[in-house]
């Protein structure tokens, strides 16, 4: 990432297939895709993985399969981030926390391999039985990338809750990062909600969805990089691929200056 006033930040979304209930297979697959991303002609500054990439929605076996306190994931992803000097938003995994509960958790690693932040999904998706097997997180999370950009954490179903995106934007987020396992037939919802979050909050949205099937559920990919005007910079198809694009964080300020939504808010009238 350049550090002058016209920064450009290269993004790589790993729109991967995920093997149901096979953490070891999935880890090897993610490592391969990450290697592919960092050896591409344009090296990414930020890599994003999809939701629940270690297990998929193998919820009936999730207690046996979950990564205990994310130890294994943290170890290898952190080593990768350090080795390649790249920021990694490590999608989300099934994480067994010290309280014994299983959480849908994302970790963010900086270029030195340090865990910059972690976020556990706060809205559980009943249509995929999350509430029967998982515990909900309780804290919105904002983190910095390269000391220059602020990003809000969000996981899949969270994008249906505009309050979360708005809260993160008010706290300073220039972008919303969204690992997902969002299936057919709701492509229209996926694209519309992502664009709405970008437009209403005048921020970038980086959304990485999986492809393939998990049981009887089919996932359509269409990972997206959307700018603060709501323009789509890059969008995946429905097969495995690495979706790439370049963003310019100073555009956030420009758009917010042009249409001063944040100055024009009337929060006292909304509740
Ligand atoms: N994994 C999820 O949270 C899926 C959310 C989803 O599909 C939706 O329609 O919302």
UniProtKB/TrEMBL annotation:
<dbReference type="InterPro" id="IPR001110">
    <property type="entry name" value="UPF0012_CS"/>
</dbReference>
<comment type="similarity">
    <text>Belongs to the carbon-nitrogen hydrolase superfamily. NIT1/NIT2 family.</text>
</comment>
<keyword id="KW-0378">Hydrolase</keyword>
<dbReference type="Pfam" id="PF00795">
    <property type="entry name" value="CN_hydrolase"/>
</dbReference>
<dbReference type="GO" id="GO:0016787">
    <property type="term" value="F:hydrolase activity"/>
</dbReference>
<feature type="domain" description="CN hydrolase">
    <location>
        <begin position="9"/>
        <end position="249"/>
    </location>
</feature>
<dbReference type="InterPro" id="IPR003010">
    <property type="entry name" value="C-N_Hydrolase"/>
</dbReference>
<dbReference type="InterPro" id="IPR036526">
    <property type="entry name" value="C-N_Hydrolase_sf"/>
</dbReference>
<protein>
    <submittedName>
        <fullName>Carbon-nitrogen family hydrolase</fullName>
    </submittedName>
</protein>
């Amino acid at each position: 990432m350049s550090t002058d006033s016209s920064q450009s930040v290269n993004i790589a979304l790993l729109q991967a297939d995920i093997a149901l209930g096979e953490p070891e297979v999935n880890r090897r697959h993610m490592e391969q895709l990450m290697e592919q991303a960092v050896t591409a002609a344009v090296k990414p500054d930020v890599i994003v993985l999809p939701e629940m990439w270690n297990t998929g929605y193998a919820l009936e076996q999730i207690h046996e399969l979950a990564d205990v306190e994310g130890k294994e994931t943290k170890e290898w992803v952190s080593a990768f981030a350090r080795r390649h000097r790249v920021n990694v938003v490590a999608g989300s995994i099934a994480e067994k926390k010290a309280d014994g509960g299983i959480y849908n958790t994302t970790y963010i690693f900086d270029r030195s391999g340090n865990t910059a932040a972690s976020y556990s999904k706060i809205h559980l998706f009943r249509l995929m039985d999350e509430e029967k097997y998982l515990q909900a997180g309780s804290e919105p999370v904002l983190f910095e990338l390269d000391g220059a950009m602020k990003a809000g954490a969000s996981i899949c179903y969270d994008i249906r809750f505009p309050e979360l995106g708005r809260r993160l934007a008010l706290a300073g987020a220039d972008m919303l990062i969204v690992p997902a396992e969002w299936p057919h037939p709701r492509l229209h919802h996926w694209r519309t909600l992502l664009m709405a979050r970008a437009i209403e909050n005048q921020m970038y949205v980086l959304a990485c969805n999986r492809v393939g099937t998990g049981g009887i559920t089919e996932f359509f990919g269409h990972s997206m990089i959307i700018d603060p005007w709501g323009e789509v910079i890059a969008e995946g198809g429905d097969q495995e691929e690495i979706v790439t694009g370049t963003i310019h964080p100073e555009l956030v300020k420009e758009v917010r200056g042009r249409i001063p939504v944040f100055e024009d808010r009337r929060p006292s009238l909304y509740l």
